[in-house]
Structure formats: C-alpha cells, structure tokens
Amino acid sequence: MPTAGDPAAALPLSLDLEDFKGDFSFDALFGSLVDELLPEYRGDDDGAPPPPPPVLGAAPPVFPAVDELLGLFKHSCKELVDLRRQIDKRLQNLKKEVAVQDAKHRKTLGELEKGVDGLFDSFARLDSRISSVGQTAAKIGDHLQSAESQRETASQTIDLIKYLMEFNSTPGDLMELSPLFSDDSRVAEAASIAQKLRSFAEEDAGRHGVPSAVGSANASRGLEVAVANLQEYCNELENRLLARFDAASQRRELSTMAECAKILSQFNRGTSAMQHYVATRPMFIDVEIMNTDIQVVLGDEGLQADSDNIADDTVKREATTITAVFPSPNEVMAILVQRVLEQRVTTILDRLLIKPSLASLPPLEEGGLLQYLRVLAVAYDKTKVLAKELQSIGCGDLDIEGLTESIYVAHKDEYTEFEQASLRQLYQSKIGVLRAEAKQQSESAGSIGRAKGASLTTPPQQQISVTVVTEFIRWNEEAISRCTLLFSQPTTVAANVRSIFACLLDQVSQYLTEGLDRARDGLNDAATQRDKFSIGASVSRRVAAAAASAQDAAATAGEISFKFFMIAVQRCASSVAILQQYFSNTISRLLLPVDGAHPSACEDMGAVSVVEAAAHKGLLQCIDTVMAEVERLLSSEQKATDYRSPDDGAAPDHRPTNACIRIVAYLSRVLEVAFSALEGLNKQSFLTELGNRLHKGLLNHWQKFTFSPSGGLRLKRDITEYGEFVRSFNAPSIDEKFELLGIMANVFIVAPESLSSLFEGTPSIRKDAVRFIQLRDDYKTAKIASMLNSITAE
C-alpha cells in the first residue's frame, strides 16, 4: 500500500480480481484511475475553474500532474503483479486438483471397461446357450412334426386299408361301403380317397404284370375285386359330378360349377369335365345357331365383311365363365378354341369353299375359278383375323397358327395349279371377246365397204392394246397378292410367284406375238396384191391403166399396213416396258430374299424374245414394203429424159426430178409414224437398214440411165434431196454414203480430162465411180474408156 509521503498515497482505488471478470474494459479501468487527478480533461466537468495564468518571467510546466500520474501508474503496476501471482498460484492449485481428478477418472474408466468386457462375455455365453436351446427345440419340433405326420399317415393308411378292404369285399357290390362314399356333402373327400385307392391298386397290379383294364379277371393277387369296384365307383362318381355340373350350368350357378370342376380335376386332370363342357356348348350342337352363322357369313351378296366375328363374341362370353369355373382355364380355352376352328369354322368353309374341278372349270358367267380363289383368299384372311382374336382372348398352349393352316391345307396344296388355270381361263375369255369384237367390226366394215364400192385397202381391224396387257398384269398382280397372303415361307412364296409370273409372260408373249403376226399379215397381203398386179412392158394401154390403178391401191394398202405395224410395234414396246416395271417393282421384291430365285426369273423374262423376233421380222417386211414402193415410183416416175435432155444446151433445170420429189414425199409421209413409234436401238437399226437399202436401190436404179452434164446436175440435185432427207435418220454412216454419192455425181459434170482428179481425195469410191463414168453419154465419143484404164491402173 502507498505511504503518506508517497505521491501515490492518495490513490483513488485499489485493483481487485473482480475488476477483471465479466465485460472487462481497459478504457474504463484507466479512466477510473486518472479521473481524480485530471478533472479538467473530463468532458462532463464544464464548471471547473480554468488553470491559473502563468507567472511572468517563468517557464510554464508542460504537464503539471505528471508526477502524480507516474506514482499512480507504478503503484498500479505493483498491484497488477501481485494479482498475477495470485492467479498463477490458483492455476497451480487447480492443475493439481485436475490431475488428481483425472487419475481417479481414468481408474474408474478402466474398471468400467473390465466390467463391460465381462458383461459382453456373459452375453455371448447366453446367446450361445439360447441358440443351442433353440436348435434343440427346433429338432424337437421337427421330430414332433414328423411324428405327427407319421401318425396322420398311419391313420390315413389305416383308413385307406379299411376302405380298400371294403372295395375288395364283393365284386360289383358298392352298397356296403362307408357312408363317406355316399355322402354328397363329402364328395370331394370321397373322390380324393377313391383316386388314391385306385392308383395304389393299379400300381400294385402293374408290379405283378397284370393289366389294369376295367374288369380284368387276372388282376393283382387279392386286389382284382378292388380294382374293378374302384373303377366302377369312380365312373359312377364322375358321372354324378358331371350331372351336377350340367344342372348347375343350366342354372348358371358358377360356384357349384367351380366346386364340381375342382373335384372332377382329380379324374384324369379334369379332361372329361373340360371336354364335356365344351361339347355341350350350344354353338356346337344347336343346328339353328350353326345355320345362322352360315347365313351371316354368306349373306345375300356373298362373303360379308364382318363374318370374322361369328365366334368372337361367343368365345369371349365363354372365356369369362371358364375363368370363373375351371381351375385350369387355359386348358379349357385351348379345347374350346380348337373346337371352334375345327368344327364351327370348318363347317362354314365347307359350305363356302366348294373346290372346283380342274378338268371341268366353272364358267366365267358364274365367276369361274377366279371366284373360288377370291373367296379362298378372303376366307383365309378372315380366319387368320379370327385366330388372332381368339389368341388374344386366350387359348393356352394351343398352336393356333398351325391349326389354322391345317384347315386350309387341302386348298393350298393345289393353289398354284388353280391360280394358273384361272389366269388361263381369263386370258382365253378375253381373247375370245377381242376376236368376237374384231370379227364384228370386220363384218361391219366389209358391209359398209361393199355398199360404197370400197377397194382392197381396208386395214386390219384388231390392233394390239396396251390396256389389254395392263389388264393381264392386273390379273397377275391380284394372283400374286393372294399368293403372298396364303403363304409366308420365302422359298414357297418365291416358287409360287415364279409359276404365276410365268403365266403372265406366256400371256403377254402370245398376245403380242399374235398381234404382230396379224400386223405382218397385212404387210403380206399388201405384198401379194403388189406382186399380183405387176405387169410387163408389152401390154395394152387399157390393161396398163387398170394395173396402175391396182398397183396404186396395193401401195395404199402397203402404206396403211406399214403404219398399222409401226403402231403395233410401239404398243408392244409400251407393253413390254410396263411388264418390266411390274417385274422390278413387285416380282423382284418377292424373289430377292431367296438365293437363285431372282436370276432364274430374269432368265424367264427371256420369253419375251419371241416378241422381239416377231417385231424384227415385221420391221424387215416394212423395209421391203417401203423399198417396193420406192422402186415402183422410180420405175413409173423416172424418165430417161430426166438425166439426158434432147436440148441439153438449154439452161439446166435445178429442180429435183419428179421421181425424187414423189419418193421423198412418200418416205416423209410413211416414216412419220416410224419416227414416233420406234425408240432407241430399234429406231437406229431400222433407219440404218432402210438407209442402206435406199442407197443400194438408188445405185442400182441409176445404173439404167445415161447422163449428160446437165443430167448430172439434176442427179446431183436429186442426191442432195435424198441426202437431206436421210439426215433425219441420225445415222452418220448413211450420211457419209450419200455424201459420197454427191461426189460421184461429179463424174457426169466435169470434163473427161478432169476425171482422174475426182478420186484423189476419196479413193474409196473409185470402184463405184468407174461404173458411173461408163454412164456418161460421151463415154464412147470422148474415148473415156482409155482414161479409165489408166485410172484403174493407178
């Protein structure tokens, strides 16, 4: 503590440990120390007197209370040190106490751990003991259960032996049996016991090699009577249950039906009950219902669209009852669905599908084979739909698809033969109609012609029709659709499709070939008329005029026949194109999945080669017809004066000759239809051949004349006219030949001494040019023969 003479003797406060507890504030502690010494610095002491003024001549002190503050601070520091020592001493004491308490706590925890370990060991021993006791109890329970089971088995065996002795007492005597076997309320128990006794007796009979047939006289030793009596009792009980089941079925008592069905399931797994229930359904025994089905299917106008529902609703109703009654509804549904398809559907099909005879086809007026095939396809499709509906309702493990196929196996075995026969029947009928129409048109045209005095230029009446070929393809397409409906295996489909498509190839080939042959007949008739009226030179003027008139008529007939054949070729090409498109779009798609089927069908397409051969022959005849008319025009219109005029010194005529004009006009007119009818290689080969024939014919024709220089100019004009016309052929080889003809025509124009220069650029025409040179009118006078020798020598 401070003394009286110490500056800090009058301390305002003493420090205590309590001052540092709680919300300690150093600023507050410091303020409480200095407030008494420095009152002028307190903000709330506004009434304190101001400090005294400084004494004049003396230096004022900077901080007058510094000595007091220093003493205060030193004293405060001393007290703080004392307080710290007190706190350190307390901490030491607390540490010692904590150490003692921690040692005690650790000792207590160790003792607790030892106690817990002992407790766990006790629990483990207790659990092991409990487990051992439980296993022992379980074994005891198993033994008790086994003993109980053996007791029950022994009791049941005793009862079974007693019942067996009752059945084995007297043959055919069932009156002395226990009440169990006659009590209707215990019929389920009686049925179970009877089945057990029967199984035992039959098994015993089997061990001794004795058959278990009913009433066997040589049954197992001692049990032959029991076997017979049990069989008789089971039959009687089963019949009694079936009678009760029928009575409940008529009253629609589903609970009683279910009870009987459950008991009957012990007899042959309930097969007799299932079959009996299905067989007694009205849909299978009521004639009126079956006749109604047939009437619904057939209707007034053939097969009806909703005929696949004839059994659908009925089976749905029966499925509901079967599910509620029978313990194995799937087996019952299998029997029901099988009976529906085999009896109900088959009965309708027998009335609906009457298989015709291939030896005596039904007439087309009554539908023909096509009617049978269409009904077959529709009936098959609807049967498949019905089968799917029945399968969705439920049919157990029944192979409904196989059963459906078996119904139609008799019809599908000969399907291909019937389809081919139907297509042939349709084709023959169509051809017969076309021939009748052609005959009628021919007779009508003949009558009109005779009435008007018509000449022999009447064209053929029956022309190839693309519409008819399209109808053939439509028949075949319908047949293919039936084939894909009736068969699903790719190999079978491919084989049948090839057979059906082969019919189409034969029909189209035959129809087109016959059409081309008829068109060729017109060309032949025109050629016959042309040859018939050809005359020699030495005839009278009247005969020549009549022959010329007949030849004109024959030429007109030839031109008409030419156009007729070209139209036939055009329609043949269109028909074959449609056939090829049908093959690509429909047939190929069905054949590609099978190895080798598509290449074989492509080979079958070669059947149309006969059409190409007929068309080729006809086109050659067309060329013959054209060239015959060209030759006739050349013979009748070409005059010797055309190329060797008497007044050769006059101004040359630069117009084509009349024969050239007539021939070019004829060719332009007659080939107009060829340009539009032919296409591609056919057109190119035809025009090339015609150009070659025309070139050769003109060369041979001009070999008959003698040419003057002015005649050579007219010839060159004719060649130019012919060349301009054949340029429309778009055949470079023909254009080249006529260009060379124009060059050769110069041999009639140039002077004799210039002839050798004509062949310098074109030596290929030397041979033909030499023959032309010999036709010059000055060949002998100008001594050109000697010049030719030198030309040929070169």
From TrEMBL:
GO terms for biological process: exocytosis; Golgi to plasma membrane transport. Residues 77-104 form a coiled coil. It comes from the Eukaryota. Signal peptide: none annotated. It holds the Pfam family Sec10_N. Residues 189-787 form the Exocyst complex component Sec10-like alpha-helical bundle domain. GO terms for cellular component: exocyst. Residues 67-183 form the Exocyst complex component Sec10 N-terminal domain. Keywords: Coiled coil, Exocytosis, Transport. InterPro entries: Sec10-like (IPR009976), Sec10_HB (IPR048627), Sec10_N (IPR048625). PANTHER family: EXOCYST COMPLEX COMPONENT 5, SEC10. Belongs to the SEC10 family. This is Exocyst complex component Sec10. It comes from Eleusine coracana subsp. coracana.
